Amino acid sequence: MRRRGGRFLIMVHPPSPPFFTPLSYPQPPTSLTPPKSELSQIREALNVGPEDQSLWYYHQFLILALTTPSGHPAAAMTASFTQQDRITYLTREIEEIKELLEDYGDVKLIYEALFEYTRALCGLEGREVGEGEKGELRGWLGRLRVLDPMRRGRWEDLGRECGLAGE
Fold first, then answer.
1. Does some domain include residue 7?
2. Where do the DSSP E strands lie in the chain?
3. Is the C-alpha dihedral spanning 48, 147, 64, 61 positive or negative?
4. Looking at the domain assignment, is residue 17 inside a domain?
5. Residue 9 lies in a domain
6. Partner of 74 at 20 to 30 A CA spacing, among 13, 32, 64, 108?
């Protein structure tokens, strides 16, 4: 600040350059890497703490990337996956989650994941839910009714949606 003719003149200095110059900002990747390691890491975390809801939400996000059609933005992470890769990964995830039931039969999130992922697998394969799968879905839906009776309406809706109504 300098005094000039009875007034104070405020000198504005040019701002210092930003810490990052425009060329040094991290650039977004041109293609996202497939979630192979992400799935294995989250699966390990689920083995340790399957009652952690946030883990299931992240796992659901990764599975959504697998089951979403290739042109959709949600599938950007798995754009390089073939249809068979998607089916293989989802089948493996379902088998891994079924193993969790041996130790954690009272965790509702496991049954929800199995229910939704089995239906998604049928969609990926372009087929209806088979009779064997319907039996599993009935069993999982029955456990969900017991573990979470406050969502009775939701479980009834899911049953009707899958052709399991009245069972």
1. no
2. 2-4, 7-9
3. negative
4. no
5. no
6. 108
CB 97 within 8 A of CB 47: no
> Cα-flanking dihedrals φ and ψ of residue 11, to 5°?
-95, 125
| Domain count within the chain | 1
- Tens digits of per-residue pLDDT, 75-128? 777 778 888 988 999 999 999 999 999 999 999 999 999 999 999 999 999 999
pLDDT of res. 95: 95
Q: Is the pTM of this model over 0.90?
A: no
Q: For residues 94 and 136, what is the distance between their CA atoms, to the nearest angstrom?
A: 12
Question: From CA 96, how far away is CA 140, in angstroms rounded?
Answer: 16
At 144, which CATH number?
1.25.40.120
Residue 119 to residue 2: CA distance in whole angstroms: 75
DSSP state of 139: H
Domain that holds residue 79: 36-161
The C-alpha angle with vertex 79 and arms to 78 and 82, in degrees rounded to 5, equals: 85
